[in-house]
Automatic annotation (TrEMBL):
<dbReference type="InterPro" id="IPR007278">
    <property type="entry name" value="DUF397"/>
</dbReference>
<feature type="domain" description="DUF397">
    <location>
        <begin position="7"/>
        <end position="55"/>
    </location>
</feature>
<protein>
    <recommendedName>
        <fullName>DUF397 domain-containing protein</fullName>
    </recommendedName>
</protein>
<dbReference type="Pfam" id="PF04149">
    <property type="entry name" value="DUF397"/>
</dbReference>
<feature type="region of interest" description="Disordered">
    <location>
        <begin position="1"/>
        <end position="25"/>
    </location>
</feature>
Length: 57
């Protein structure tokens, strides 16, 4: 599901609301779903790809 500002939640998150949202692009942004107003972390797309690859191993 996409939100207005390009963020989406993982399909693994369910409806609990305890998750992160990601907006992928040249710079990937990650934020806490429950605390959106506190800002986000930002990564280069290549850094994000390396992280996801490491997590899926």
């Amino acid at each position: 599901m996409n939100t207005v500002d390009g963020y989406h939640k993982s399909s693994y998150s369910g409806e609990s609301g305890h998750c992160v949202e990601v907006a992928e692009g040249p710079r990937t942004r990650v934020r806490d779903t429950r605390n959106r107003t506190l800002g986000h972390l930002e990564f280069e797309a290549s850094e994000w790809a390396v992280l996801l690859s490491a997590l899926t191993r």
